[in-house]
Amino acid sequence: SQQGEEDPQALSIQEGENATMNCSYKTSINNLQWYRQNSGRGLVHLILIRSNEREKHSGRLRVTLDTSKKSSSLLITASRAADTASYFCATADMGRRALTFGSGTRLQVQP
Amino acid sequence: KAGVTQTPRYLIKTRGQQVTLSCSPISGHRSVSWYQQTPGQGLQFLFEYFSETQRNKGNFPGRFSGRQFSNSRSEMNVSTLELGDSALYLCASSLEGAAVETQYFGPGTRLLVL
Predict the structure, then answer these.
(1) Do B98 and A101 touch (CB under 8 A)?
(2) Tell me: the pLDDT tens digits for B77-91?
């Protein structure tokens, strides 16, 4: 079963704008990971944030984690048409050696 | 290093048949996990192998099975295929497993059951 929901389910923005996606989960976690998927292909890892971290940056990506609210957000700044993809959060639950994925956000960046 | 490879990339089968999918992890990675992705259920964990042993299993029927070889390559098998098994099957590898580190995914095998 899926860990939780991502919000929004779909997002359409113009190039240069920022995109924010939110993820909620239900259990205690070791880490939370964000992945990108283009058109039903394989998943590409974007960033991993551990349960004792609150914020992490990687290039144009900023991820926050609030373990008290069991939520995370992914911010993509200055978006590009090439960022068009589906974005998934995935949690690594304590004691379970598997990723539990959210439902995903479909991002469309208009050139 | 070469990435995770999966073969075949596309497969068409009919109900009742069986299928075997293959995954070659990144060199040196000992953990291989399998996931099923469908439009209705999303991404769901099937099982994880580490050093030839199944360490964890998702909530799938016994028709889904897997194994891992001494070179860390992994195969998954689905017997008595059903229409609902049509999906993108993804494998992922890492050194120690998803609990502690990034997973590296292959391009997937798209299975269509007719």
Answers:
(1) no
(2) 999 999 999 999 999
